[in-house]
Amino acid sequence: MGFAAVARVTEDKWIACAIHDEINFGLAVGGELNLETTICNEIRQHKKPVVIDHVAEDPEFANHHTPLLYGFQSYISVPITLKNGNFFGTLCAIDPKPAQLKNTTVIGTFTMFADLIAFHLDALEQIAITELELKKQQEVAVLREQFIAILGHDLRNPLNAISSSAQLLSRLNLDERGIRIAKIVKDSSFRMNGLIENMLDFASGRLGEGITISRTPDEDLEKLLIQVVDELKTIWPSRNIEVKFNFDHPVNADGKRLAQLFSNLLANALNYSPADSTVEITAFSTGEEFNLCVANKGKQIPAAAMERLFQPFSRGEVEPSQKGLGLGLYIASEIANAHDGTLDVSSTPEKTCFTLHIPYKK
To answer: Where is the Histidine kinase domain (predicted)?
Structure first.
């Protein structure tokens, strides 16, 4: 066939998308034909192929206006139907001379190419949709991360002022009610600071490159862990915390991050255990590992909750006073992972124990 085209055919336009022209038909890619002058317009309506071997001998098309206008004798056009069933256009070809087109080989070949074109168009559309969706998701992720980071920064300033004011109030000669109010403010500011830290770390872990660590070859973990215990004792002054440390070897780790992990575990243990019970902390370092265990008495963690305990925004059965974002254990596990370590939990009716294990790394 001397001229072939992939045509986009709509209710009002015939547009050439691809052209193969050996007879100087004179139409370029992007060129248009008057829709009413084409047989493709009829195919758009009935969605069936049209094949003509010899126009002059074809009783249906011998006097048709299209062959008379464009001067062809042989013609084939098959519809291009997209995956969703929508009609896209046609794959059509003409020639001034008659041709043997009404056979399974030729019609099958044109139909196959029309299907391939439809498949290609569907793939291009899907790629465009996917790229657009990906771009939107990336923009949303960036905005979300920026929002959380800015929010965390803006929250810290007034929170620091509240915490400092509570500290100053606690040093004044207050009556019993004033002391109790100052303690509530101090405790709440401590909890809010933990929520902000967790929120920012969650944003970093999920929307950025993950929680990052900076190891120190001889980190003084014993000192850092004791500082965390002392800080939490100011929040829970009546609670009994038993500490057993045995650091025989220095630990190559990020002390600040491990202190954050430990603070989350210890705060959970104090929150979820009876007020008259003892929270037990053991930690040791050897030439091969660092191990930390925080154990407390209290209700056994249900099996269903155990399965999702380290997932973000997941919490077990809690009392009204123990509500929170549910990010502490997720972030603690991420810190453990960043150290190539593990954070495990065991829970019985008598005791719940969270255990951090970090293998030695030079």
So the answer is: 150-362
Domain 3-102 has CATH 3.30.450.340: yes
158-212 pLDDT, tens per residue? Answer: 777 888 888 888 888 888 888 888 877 877 787 677 777 777 776 666 555 567 7
- Rounded Cα gap, residues 4 and 236, in angstroms: 84
Q: Taking the domains of the chain in order of start, what are their residue ranges?
A: 3-102, 130-207, 216-359
Question: Helix 255-271 vs helix 221-235: angle between axes, to the nearest 10 degrees?
Answer: 30
Relative orientation angle of helices 176-207 and 255-271, to the nearest 10 degrees: 130
Residue 138 parent element (H or E)? helix 104-170
d(CA 210, CA 202) in angstroms, rounded, equals 8
Q: What are residue 289's phi and psi, to 5 degrees?
A: -160, 165
Distance, CA of 324 to CA of 328 (rounded, Å): 9
Which class for 108: exposed (0-12), middle (13-18), buried (19 or more C-beta within 10 A)?
Answer: exposed
| Rounded to 5°, angle at Cα 302 from 300 and 305 | 125
Look up the CATH architecture of domain 216-359.
2-Layer Sandwich (3.30)
pLDDT by residue (tens digit) across 101-144?
Answer: 999 999 999 999 999 989 988 888 888 888 888 888 888 777 77
Angle among Cα 207, 208, 211 to the nearest 5 degrees reads 110
Using alpha carbons only, give the angle 288, 291, 292 rounded to the nearest 5 degrees.
165
CATH code: domain 130-207 is 1.10.287.130
